[in-house]
Design a protein that fits this description.
It is built from no helices and ten strands. By secondary structure, the chain is mostly beta strands. The structure holds zinc ion. Pfam families: OB_ChsH2_C, zf-ChsH2.
């Protein structure tokens, strides 16, 4: 049994030299539009026929644009902790990129703690432990310190 930690989805975030997580997005070479999750082609801008996107680090901080609280466990096959704990989901706007990134909010912060316009910062949190005993982590938002 390994006790290692792995991203739940490869390639969505990385960790910088100081151990801080940042998201990886993609940017169109042609028009500069950003997209998350990252992809290598097919610019999301309907007015652009760019087909070559570069992987770029995204801002670690953004503004809370919207949020919700999930009080029900997702149906199978989506992994969920047992017993299920309600969690908040935040839509955070990255000003520089003009992008809104959805993510879970860290444990202990629920909708009552959140307010549109708050500054949020990126972190990671465990999502589930897979069949090999590997802790799978995802990007998450927390209230910026
Ligand atoms: Zn483009």
């Amino acid at each position: 049994m390994s006790a290692s930690t792995q991203p739940a989805v490869d390639g969505w975030f990385a960790t910088d030299g100081s151990g801080q997580a940042y998201l990886i997005g993609a940017k169109c070479h042609q028009c500069g539009t950003y997209v998350f999750p990252p992809r290598t082609n097919n610019c999301p801008n309907p007015g652009c026929d760019g087909d070559d996107l570069a992987q770029v680090p995204l801002s670690r901080r953004g503004t809370l644009w919207s949020y919700t609280e999930n009080r029900y466990a997702p149906p199978p096959p989506y992994p969920s902790p047992d017993p299920f704990e309600p969690f908040a989901v935040a839509a955070v706007e990255l000003a520089e990129e003009g992008l809104i990134v959805l993510g879970k909010v860290v444990e202990g912060t629920l909708a009552a703690d959140l307010k549109v316009g708050m500054e949020m910062e990126l972190t990671t949190m465990p999502l589930y432990v897979d069949d090999d005993g590997v802790e799978r982590i995802v990007h998450a938002w927390r209230i910026a310190r």
